[in-house]
């Protein structure tokens, strides 16, 4: 692994109101000791086994999806060698059985990687959020649990703002700003290991012959290692690679979008824009760029006031009714 | 015989489906599964009978077209089948409903997907209804099929409860159909069930009210009315012998 700049950090004790504090952040930030009073964290500070037993006490048998990857991959969940598939397998599982398998793997050396990622915490461990509480936003928030032994999730971005709390084990977060997209050699958009497109560069062992521009990305890289009770704020769309390095690791994360639910998914818009514009002649693309800048990206343009109010439609601030009309229109137009 | 695969707009982009009905397209069948919401339309033209499904043992309702395997007495001399109402179970052909697990924040959710039987005689590349639009969108026909499959899925969820309610008031009785073949030998087709009219007439006001509130009462009378078509169907058989 190359040397990365440290991510800015602060102590949880210096934060008066977490919601207000997070709403003001625009850059990545490590918050040390944010969840030190969680019973899950206190158990983790005693031992991996105590941490596992604590979670087992709350886990249920609801069906979940777990992943496993052979030891040879060292926990890197990725494509297979020729990109015809993935290098790991998926299992219909439940949290109790995942934890039982992890309990056995703790005592083994060189074990396969086992992993349950991003599962609604109250679905698989009811009561966890009450016993291990944190309020991060007034927006609609998804609280998810990630459990496993060693794992390495290739750099990707999420649409939502993210506060990730290490509740057991150790995790290293390696972050890059969104604009490094071209230096990260991002893989397929439609066929992905876990829903999001990933950088094909193995940060732990970068192949500069295949990925020469990654050298430029390194200068922009920030990294931090978190232990039980530490948290990290990852703004939406920042690239992040996450490695869990202990025999037993638990992460709880909170995702929220600073946008009403009725707005469409920006990634879908990008995909459709690629379908519609990417392969046009250059002079057309440039004009579309001007129109996109005017209608989509410019914040200081008055789109609507020269139009009579009842006819403004999507030019005005978008409300739920406008969103419904446009969604229906797009559905019709897309079907051809 | 059957070759069911998940329908997709790349592998199956040029496929069409022949929606003409007839013996050439696999309609030489003696019955079709029907559901209570269809009884009013079916009873106008065919008998509705019940039987236990040979594999599952669960009751099902059938529109009857003939008395022997593969015998459809409603086919005309050219082998065409012209029904004023086509049961959903026939409309769906050659498509089937499939289920796929999708995960929403780790929580498995079953979603319905469309499968197609590539060995069906209805599949064509030049005749019939296009499944996909020119650039891969869904045709009106495929949207209609999706509605039919959805309706069938809903009906499958509730059909057992319908029969449980009829059984709970002893409304089902076994019956058989007898006729003489062309050699004058008596043939008995058994395994059918229908509504026991005597039991129906003896139900209490409260029991009838319950059946009516569940929407079963209309279905029950439709089945009874449809029995009038059995002699007509037998006449057709006689005429063909």
From TrEMBL, chain A:
InterPro entries: Cupin_8, JmjC_dom, RmlC-like_jellyroll. Pfam families: Cupin_8. It comes from Pseudoalteromonas lipolytica. PANTHER family: HYPOXIA-INDUCIBLE FACTOR 1 ALPHA INHIBITOR-RELATED, HYPOXIA-INDUCIBLE FACTOR 1-ALPHA INHIBITOR. Gene3D superfamilies: Jelly Rolls. The lineage of its organism: Bacteria, Pseudomonadati, Pseudomonadota, Gammaproteobacteria, Alteromonadales. Residues 73-271 form the JmjC domain. This is Cupin-like domain-containing protein. It comes from the Bacteria.
From TrEMBL, chain B:
It comes from Pseudoalteromonas lipolytica. InterPro entries: SapC. It comes from the Bacteria. This is SapC family protein.
